[in-house]
Amino acid sequence: MWVININDADLLRDIFVKDFHVWPHHLDFHLGEAIDIRKHVGAFAMDVISRCAYGIDVESIANPNHPLVLNARKILSVDASFGIIVSGLFPALGRLIGAEPFDMSACRYFDDLTKKIIDERKLHNNHKNNSISKRRTDFIQLMIDSEKSDKDFGYDSISDGEPDDKSTEQTFKKPSGTLSIDEMVAQGILFFIAGYDTTSAALTHAIYYLSQHPECQQKLYDELKTCDEFTYEKLVHLKYLNAVINETLRLAPSFLRLFRVCVEDYPLGNTGITIPAGTFMTVSTYTLHRDPKYWDNPTDFLPERWIQPKHHPYAYMPFGGGPRLCIGQRYLKRYYSYWARHGVPGPNYVDLRQVMQPVHEVDAGYQQKYGRIFGMYTFTQKIININDADLLRDIFVKDFHIWPNHLDFHLGTSKLDKSLFFMPGNDDWKRQRSILSPVFTSGKLRAMMAHISHISDRFIQSLSQHEVSGEAIDIRKHVGAFAMDVISRCAYGIDVESIANPNHPLVLNARKILSVDASFGIIVSGLFPALGRLIGAEPFDMSACRYFDDLTKKIIDERKLHNNHKNNSISKRRTDFIQLMIDSEKSDKDFGYDSISDGEPDDKSTEQTFKKPSGTLSIDEMVAQGILFFIAGYDTTSAALTHAIYYLSQHPECQQKLYDELKTCDEFTYEKLVHLKYLNAVINETLRLAPSFLRLFRVCVEDYPLGNTG
């Protein structure tokens, strides 16, 4: 087979439009390796295409094992197998030996799925029994509807060079007949193959180019602000948005090569060359789009060149051209504009320059620029940031049932997926919450005060040694040791004295878990949780997780054996977190919702939500809560104390007021500490300026009207 490469725009116009009948065989053969970011943007593409093609909402991030996702990946993961090599390079041999380039189990899945959907739609979704508003609008439904139409839609294109009406009418008059079931199956699979990779690639490159050109980001944002609503009709008229998309596809076309095969001898323009029938022709779109003959500054990202385009119409062919132009290009462009359709201000692309900037500085800059409500993006998630106190009250309390979940995070094989913080807000979460809420009541916390007071005295004694020498100390290190001792004692009933015993097993393993560096496991698990599950990434040190697993089980076994009410007096019983969880098994009291926040939910709503169900905590659940107690308690405690000491050192007048208040207290019991107003004021002000969590996350489980924002 002869192969020629043609990159002359005038010749391409003739080949793809005027002389289309010479080139009817379009080779739909596509090989492409996904780079990392495409793999993650691909999760979004998977959801959109699944919904638009088959009307199925798969949520591939949350449901990586959904049958549609698994089978789509089998088809999309076209590796260099024997079947694909033979079918691509030696198609005649492939037909002869029956080579299979695609996974046939996946093909059969889509075959059965399409047939099932078509049967259900034809049975139920007819105009007599269903209103137009209830009818599906996915690709399968549109193919079904096409059977009922005898209208000639002609040639639909958004390319710069449109064919003349006469030629398209002759070519594209709708014939009689309908699509067969097998043809619908084929188009559905093709919709996936052609749409998934092109969409994820285009989004990836757009994100990259905009991150390298912040001035283009700003121009795009300024244009989007002028649009009152992001409907399809208005989006197509946003000139700069479309210019960004076109320029992205010019520099990074969806198909690096376009293919045609001529069916008869073809004279190639005025070159004097005649191409024999059966010749395989390629067009290098990458080279064509960067040819200085057609483009000024061809390697530069300049969306402005598309405001008043002057290039040859066939020097830009990201989807092909002529009658065999990719029919999915309108879909891709509409999908590519998704980020602009939410009507929320904010950066409309991932700003990679912000990755290394502190989170609080990024958020403060965004709020100053966009207001208290703004949208932003990670590699795999679209996020809306809300800093309006009235709206937050509704989200966190009144509408908790709509916002019950935290952000998805892959936890590896650790038991942390059974902890309250990382669990979805389902019935199992409610069960654990109702069991654990009594553990944090004032009475239970009061019982721990003796341990905290003892460790506090030891901490003050340690600091007094440095007071005598007058040397500067790293206060975070010492406060961290204090926090380690308090958490170890209150969680597990173990007195470690971490300053004197820095190599205590509990201290060493706690530090392994708490020292969450930017490792591959933590990055993948946090930014790309679906990928983390797929490859089995471990965000935490598993030897440390196993240590706390064994420690918790050992303590529970010992307590259940020895610390029972018959053989031990109340005074001798442990009062740590593990013991309180063990004791919770024996209580059937409904403690409701226990909170120390300023705004309490109303009694009626909390009783309905937090009635204690029957059941107890499993061993794994106790292990998870113990580790979570360490993770959530250690860093927040040490950070809060460190900041409080710092702020007081900068404000000696506040130190004096606090000192004067403390002098009035004859003993520091739990009951008296909670009534020291200025002490609590100092703590609250510290947490206002230096909150324990720089970002709080919630995920809504249904569409949510955001107050009166529209």
Automatic annotation (TrEMBL):
Binding site for heme: 326
Pfam families linked: p450 (PF00067)
GO cellular component: endoplasmic reticulum membrane
Bilayer topology term: Peripheral membrane protein
GO molecular function, one term: oxidoreductase activity, acting on paired donors, with incorporation or reduction of molecular oxygen
SUPFAM superfamilies: Cytochrome P450
Region annotation (Disordered) ranges: 151-174, 589-612
Subcellular localization, as worded in the UniProt entry: Endoplasmic reticulum membrane; Microsome membrane
Keyword Phosphoprotein: no
Keywords, ordered alphabetically: Endoplasmic reticulum, Heme, Iron, Metal-binding, Microsome, Monooxygenase, Oxidoreductase
Cofactor requirement: heme
Family listed: Belongs to the cytochrome P450 family.
Function: Cytochromes P450 are a group of heme-thiolate monooxygenases. They oxidize a variety of structurally unrelated compounds, including steroids, fatty acids, and xenobiotics.
Stated name of the protein: Cytochrome P450
Record organism: Oppiella nova
